[in-house]
Give the backbone structure.
Amino acid sequence: MKILLAIDGSDFSKVAIDELATLPFPAGTEVCILNVFENPMLAAPGALPLGGTLGNYYEETVSSAKKSAEDLVNEASKSLRDKNDVLSITTAVVEGLPKSAILEKTEAFDTDLIIVGSQGHGAFSRFLLGSVSQSLATHADCSVMIVRKRGSKEKNNY
């Protein structure tokens, strides 16, 4: 079985890591821990260093975001290995938009199951903001497990 664990460093991702560690998968189950980082320059257009020139600022900003993402997946990998020694774990860091990058990795990895944390937004928030987990559940060609943080039941505001 191949599992893609998509994380973003939030408490919801940590809950997803913990949940995956407790599930009884057979030895040799492959897990790819993925973090998608968005280019910080695109996330904050117009953000320039003091002085108004880019210089090495762009490369340093992207490099820093990538390094943070790599640290995140390495920490998640160590945590998962400490809790479950039957899983075969790899990590991946990609730049892009989370919704599309996760689906692309799902196809490339030939994923059987995607595991993500839930942000716990209500229906109205999902409508306004969009949701990676909602998008994956709708568009993925495999099963998707959305792990909810205990005690975070969303209020139904219909």
About this structure: The two ends are 38 Å apart (CA to CA). Residues 2-82+98-147 form a domain with the Rossmann fold fold (CATH 3.40.50.620). Confidence is low (pLDDT under 50) at residues 125-130.
